[in-house]
Write a structure and sequence with these properties.
alpha+beta, 2 domains, two-stranded antiparallel sheet, 7 strands, Spore_coat_protein_Z/Y, Spore coat protein (Insoluble fraction)
Length: about 160
């Protein structure tokens, strides 16, 4: 039996959180200025069809509740590898039927090096995030949480 008042999902935490949401919705409209739903609506131009937005930046969290940091390198020349870069912030490029996703690292303009020192996403600049062309493939079953940042234009 669940420990929530109205739910029995098999997860005590989920049951209680569902009860809290129901109670809160009875009192005030459930609206978030920053959320995945809001970012997707902004991207799709629900309020403005000419907004120029093309990306919902995301931060993923591993099952140990730590933010995931991805690494990759730019191609300098045909046979040369550039600096290894890292980012906590990604653009989702593709998700396949096996829950594998291709993520593109997003970095702020002019800050494409020296990210190895970053300990968490709050240390990474979100000002003028841009697509890097550096993509990684991840298993989405390894994550337990996603944070969506406000929609942006990453292809300036």
């Amino acid at each position: 039996m669940g420990c929530g008042k109205n739910y029995d999902t098999g997860s005590c935490v989920a049951d209680i959180l569902k009860d809290i949401v129901d109670a809160q919705n009875d009192i005030v409209e459930n609206c978030c200025d920053t959320s995945c739903d809001q970012s997707i609506n902004d991207l799709l131009g629900e309020n403005d069809t000419s907004n120029g937005l093309d990306t919902v930046p995301v931060i993923l969290y591993c099952k140990d509740c730590k933010p995931f940091k991805g690494f990759g390198a730019v191609r300098e020349h045909r046979s040369k590898i550039g600096d290894i870069l890292s980012s906590f912030i990604f653009r989702v490029k593709k998700v396949d039927k096996d829950n594998c996703a291709v993520l593109e690292l997003l970095l702020s303009d002019g800050e494409s090096c020296g990210y190895d020192h970053l300990k968490d996403p709050t240390e990474q600049s979100t000002h003028d995030l841009e697509a890097t062309g550096i993509c990684i493939t991840v298993d989405l079953d390894c994550f337990c949480h996603v944070t969506c940042l406000p929609a942006i234009n990453a292809f300036n």
